[in-house]
Q: What sequence folds into this?
């Protein structure tokens, strides 16, 4: 199992690091080639255009191998009620065939359910599957998700 995440302003990163310390599995941050603007209104504009034009931003080359047990925890912020388009890129450029992906998001209020239709679509095209997900906006949810993933891992 591995934790792979994208985080723009650090919240998803903090949740991913907590999972990492509980689960004791490798952790890897995916990054866009071209950094997103730090300014909120510029970022809002860029992300709006990405969705409108269905742009998948390029990612820095992954410096890791995907896990042999085929289990990936994938974290991202919810942007515009869905995963960032960069996550679609992640599905498009990696060989994820047979991987089971446990998604989590951090958000201001949207639950992971908002992102699931997108993830299921992208995973389907990559011949991967989406497993249990979480909205890790609280300590309680981080702990619940960690326990859930541990129990799946022991199946
Ligand atoms: C451009 C942008 C769009 C966002 N859209 C949503 C949204 O649709 N729903 C939501 O609940 N939160 C939304 N948020 C809030 C982020 O999901 C939240 O702050 C998240 O924890 C940021 O994670 P990060 O620090 O790892 O980047 C948005 C934030 C940004 C910057």
A:
């Amino acid at each position: 199992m591995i934790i792979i995440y994208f985080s723009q302003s650090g919240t998803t990163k903090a949740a991913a690091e907590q999972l990492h310390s509980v689960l004791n599995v490798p952790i890897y941050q995916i990054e866009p080639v071209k950094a997103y603007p730090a300014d909120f209104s510029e970022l809002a504009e860029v992300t709006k255009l990405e969705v409108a034009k269905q742009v998948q931003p390029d990612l820095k080359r992954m410096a890791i191998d995907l896990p042999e047990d085929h289990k990936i925890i994938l974290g991202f912020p919810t942007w515009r009620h869905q995963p960032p388009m960069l996550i679609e890129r992640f599905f498009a450029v990696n060989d994820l065939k047979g991987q089971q992906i446990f998604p989590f998001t951090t958000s201001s209020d949207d639950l992971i359910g908002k992102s699931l239709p997108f993830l299921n679509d992208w995973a389907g095209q990559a011949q991967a599957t989406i497993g249990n997900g979480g909205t890790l906006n609280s300590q309680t949810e981080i702990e619940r998700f960690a326990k859930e993933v541990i129990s799946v891992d022991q199946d």
Notes: The first helix runs from residue 11 to 23. The pocket of flavin mononucleotide is lined by residues 7-13, 40, 43-44, 47, 77-81, 106-110 (CB under 6 Å). Residues 2-153 form a domain with the Rossmann fold fold (CATH 3.40.50.360). The helical segments are 11-23, 40-53, 85-93, 116-125, 139-153.
